[in-house]
Design brief:
Elements (H helix, E strand, L loop, with lengths): L33 H7 L13 E5 H11 L9 H6 L4 E5 L3
Antiparallel strand pairs: 1-2
Length: about 100
C-alpha cells in the first residue's frame, strides 16, 4: 500500500530566495512570446513596466486568440479558467 503523502507547508516556497515576491495561489503564471506581447500590447518595459505592471485584456480578444492560434496561444494553459470566467477583462500582472 502506498505511503500517504503529507503536505509540507514550505514545499511551495522551495527555491525562493529571501526578498523574492511569492506568487499567490490564485494566480497562474504564463510565459508570453514576443508575438503574444505584440498582439495584446503588453510588451515588457514598454507597455508594462515595473512602475505599471498591470494590463487588462478583453476576454473576447483572448477567445479570438484561441480560435486564431489554437493550442499555440500562450493563454492555452489557462483556457478552461478563461472560458468559465464571468469577467469581461482578464488582468495581467507582470512579475519581474
Amino acid at each position: 500500500m502506498p505511503e500517504e503523502r503529507k503536505e509540507d507547508p514550505d514545499a511551495g516556497n522551495a527555491g525562493e530566495e529571501e526578498g523574492e515576491e511569492e506568487i499567490p495561489s490564485d494566480i497562474l503564471p504564463l510565459f508570453f512570446t514576443s508575438k503574444t506581447q505584440e498582439i495584446f500590447g503588453c510588451k515588457g518595459d514598454e507597455d508594462v513596466t515595473e512602475e505599471n505592471p498591470y494590463k487588462l485584456i478583453p476576454k473576447e480578444a483572448i477567445l479570438q486568440d484561441f480560435k486564431d492560434r489554437a493550442a499555440v496561444s500562450d493563454f492555452h494553459p489557462a483556457k478552461q479558467i478563461i472560458l468559465v470566467s464571468l469577467q469581461a477583462q482578464i488582468s495581467l500582472h507582470v512579475f519581474g
